[in-house]
Amino acid sequence: MNYFANLFIISSPSGAGKSTLLNKLFSANLHPMKFSISHTTRDMRPGEIDGVHYHFVTKEKFREMIDGKCFFEWAQVFDNYYGTSRVNIEEYLKNGTDVFLDIDWQGARQIRKQFPAVRTIFILPPSLDVLRNRLVKRGQDSDQVINSRMDKAKNEIIHYDEYDYTIINDDLETAFEQLKNIVLAERQKTANQMVKNAELLKNLTK
User: Fold this and answer.
1) Starting at the edge strand that comes first in sequence, how are the strands of the sheet with 71-77 ordered?
2) Whose CA is closest to 163, among 110, 115, 123, 114?
């Protein structure tokens, strides 16, 4: 199926500023956008809301969804499952809403195989020292956890060249402008305009 809206994957190591950039993008109200909400079988934590933070389902329901090919990608993390719904995303795209996925490079590979039109963006820090300092300033993690996050970050960063776009988040406003420009430019691609403005283009080229 052809859409004039776009599916975006945004990946980055923890601390690179991905969440801040996405929040700024959604606040800009450029056009209809939706953040994809994943399904999970883990227990709901205090303060979480079903359908807002995750779609919380049983393991039996999740396995049924796997069998029904309901997911673009899914993974088992320890004893729980996490997955990205195919049906929800396709419905949003059909209605002209850009959809954004916050997943890692492994999930991006899975989705790219099934949905080649997906646009992928990797957010990088200006240096590993800056990344570590950002994690430390959060004041949320122990040194051991920060070291673990840094090791994971190094393993994630080496996959940046699998993505369509790379943004180095040295200055937040500059990085935001780059992200915004990518999203706007993708809407103007000829293939998208042929779907969105099919009747107009048909009349103009008679």
Assistant:
1) 55-56, 39-40, 80-85, 71-77
2) 123
